[in-house]
Amino acid sequence: MSREAAELGGRGAGSPGRRGPGGRGSERRESGAPGAGRPASREAEAQGHRGPGTPGAREPGHRGARGPGDNRGMATDLHELLRSLRVWDPEVTRLPPFDPEAAPATPLELFTEWFAAVVAAGQSEPHTMSLATSDEAGLPDVRIVMLHGADEAGWSFASHAGSRKGRHLSARPYAALCFYWPVLGRQVRVRGTVTAAPSADAQGDLHARSTGALAAALTGRQSEVLGSVAELAQASQAAWERAAREPETSVPSWTLYRLRAEEVEFFQGDEARRHVRLRYRRAEDGWTRELLWP
């Protein structure tokens, strides 16, 4: 079973029972497969959006009134669809000012401030992030996972040690994260070294989550070739039954990873494309800060 889907079905960022934006997520999810993830990075798209006064700019709400799955009247040509879309529609996005001179001394402080702001603004699933790793040959891979926590030890996420990402991190213990929060036109990029937390921490993290998360972990065999959907259904049903019967059972392969940031970048979109990029870099005596051209 894909662990990415189960991770998205867990609770908020390391906080059992924590409500999501707008009160969503207050109920314990019993399904390990929520909605789709978000793109790994929208920076290029953000920089290419139609700015104010740009010829051909579309009115707010253009092609935006349909609900999920409603494609009536929509073109099916990919290139035409791409040209019809816009980024940061003012009907759903507010681009707040960001003064980098007033930013706190550490990236964790600013991340916490921005995270609280996007939750308050109603961003859906703000705790989901793209996780990029590379294999032994240096070939990259990326997927959506859930943030389990962030503190002085690092940004935390979890998976099976034998999954593709687990194997990547064993061979090359470096990774990058990217959060994209379009409701405020913000993204945060984090990269650094990754270590596995003690097993007790990993099991505690797992047991703080839903029955569905435990069932998905017990199903195991993540990233292995699956023979059939029926095979998955049978294994999953057995795992659900065991999770309900033994809620404190351990899953030895379940691993809590911590990314110790060496570099953290905060991106604030601007309607006139004067995007603000503030980068923190770890130094011997703390953090240095510098601005980047957008």
Automatic annotation (TrEMBL):
Ranges of Gly residues composition bias in the record: 9-24
Q: Which residues form a coiled coil?
A: none
Q: Which UniProt keywords apply?
A: Flavoprotein, FMN, Oxidoreductase
What cofactor does this protein call for?
FMN
What region holds the Pyridoxamine 5'-phosphate oxidase N-terminal domain?
A: 124-232
- Please report the stretch or stretches of sequence annotated as the Pyridoxine 5'-phosphate oxidase dimerisation C-terminal domain: 254-294
Specify where the region named Disordered lies, as residue ranges.
1-74
Q: Which InterPro entries match?
A: Pyridox_Oxase, Pyridox_Oxase_N, Pyridoxamine_oxidase_dimer_C, Split_barrel_FMN-bd
Quote the Pfam families the UniProt record gives.
PNP_phzG_C, PNPOx_N
Q: Which family does it belong to?
A: Belongs to the pyridoxamine 5'-phosphate oxidase family.
PANTHER family tied to this protein: PYRIDOXINE-5'-PHOSPHATE OXIDASE (PTHR10851:SF0), PYRIDOXINE-5-PHOSPHATE OXIDASE (PTHR10851)
- Report what the protein is called: Pyridoxal 5'-phosphate synthase
User: From what organism does this protein derive?
Assistant: Streptomyces venetus
